[in-house]
Amino acid sequence: MFVARSIAADHKDLIHDVSFDFHGRRMATCSSDQSVKVWDKSESGDWHCTASWKTHSGSVWRVTWAHPEFGQVLASCSFDRTAAVWEEIVGESNDKLRGQSHWVKRTTLVDSRTSVTDVKFAPKHMGLMLATCSADGIVRIYEAPDVMNLSQWSLQHEVSCKLSCSCISWNPSSSRAHPSMIAVGSDDGSPNAMAKVQIFEYNENTRKELTSSGGPTKFEIQVVAQFDNHNSQVWRVSWNITGTVLASSGDDGCVRLWKANYMDNWKCTGILKGNGSPVSGSSQQGNANPSLGSNTPNLQHSLNGSSASR
């Protein structure tokens, strides 16, 4: 049985995101007060704030943990149009903070010209990669070439979703049967906006060098599904642990579940209201627009990777 516990977070403004680490023993929160707080769970089950610092010059929308294999690493994104990577370090012997841990900024990613609305680390098997999305509809994927040097990140992929982006989610599956996938949700409020949820896939094996000498690397990222069933702004997308089902939630008060059939056509397999009750007729197939491969041609985005460090 779940028991609700409240925590006096002590943020000075709205809290926008809460994120647990891999083991569920640490938690990070972020707020419009421009700060991030880190919480550690005691043996008694109580949460204690162990770090708090100003991270951005605007509201902080999201905070997320990297896999612990890469150390204690956080990423945050903000209305100030940047994303930042933070690392927890222990003070050196000649440091005033000897034996104490504190968080330091390793890099600031400044490619976006609008508010950066979400940030997520890729699954561990993909290496130390980070995806961001922004209000201008651009998804950017960065990679740290050297996991021991988090101050150097290179922009690997950049793709336009053609709608304002609100959220992203990496597919956690490490199966070789399918290329890596990332889902993107849109908060575009215009009535004519379609495809509020999109799924992209890419495969590193499709990397092709441009013929021009010294030119950037060209990637092909394919849209495998896009849906407009919410008919409203979509605020969160999330995969199940096996990467076979995608959940999306929106202003229509519903959570919709999406799954691919044996032909890799994505369909809505269930709809839940905000109170958890099923919606009448939720067993019907959703209007996956398109269920690519049947009614519409493959959509591909030609991407120019950048080898420059950010």
TrEMBL record:
Keywords: Chromosome partition, Kinetochore, Lysosome, mRNA transport, Nuclear pore complex, Nucleus, Protein transport, Repeat, Translocation, Transport, WD repeat. GO terms for biological process: chromosome segregation; protein transport. SMART domains: WD40. Residues 277-310 are annotated as: Disordered. It comes from the Eukaryota. Pfam families: WD40. SUPFAM superfamilies: WD40 repeat-like. Its main location: nucleus. WD repeats lie at residues 8-40, 227-259. InterPro entries: Sec13/Seh1_fam (IPR037363), WD40/YVTN_repeat-like_dom_sf (IPR015943), WD40_PAC1 (IPR020472), WD40_repeat_dom_sf (IPR036322), WD40_rpt (IPR001680). It is found in: Chromosome, Centromere, Kinetochore; Lysosome membrane; Nucleus, Nuclear pore complex. GO terms for molecular function: structural molecule activity. One of its GO terms (cellular component) is lysosomal membrane. Component of the Nup107-160 subcomplex of the nuclear pore complex (NPC). The Nup107-160 subcomplex is required for the assembly of a functional NPC. The Nup107-160 subcomplex is also required for normal kinetochore microtubule attachment, mitotic progression and chromosome segregation. This subunit plays a role in recruitment of the Nup107-160 subcomplex to the kinetochore. As a component of the GATOR2 complex, functions as an activator of the amino acid-sensing branch of the mTORC1 signaling pathway. The GATOR2 complex indirectly activates mTORC1 through the inhibition of the GATOR1 subcomplex. GATOR2 probably acts as an E3 ubiquitin-protein ligase toward GATOR1. In the presence of abundant amino acids, the GATOR2 complex mediates ubiquitination of the NPRL2 core component of the GATOR1 complex, leading to GATOR1 inactivation. In the absence of amino acids, GATOR2 is inhibited, activating the GATOR1 complex. Belongs to the WD repeat SEC13 family. This is SEH1 like nucleoporin. It comes from Sus scrofa (Pig). The lineage of its organism: Eukaryota, Metazoa, Chordata, Craniata, Vertebrata.
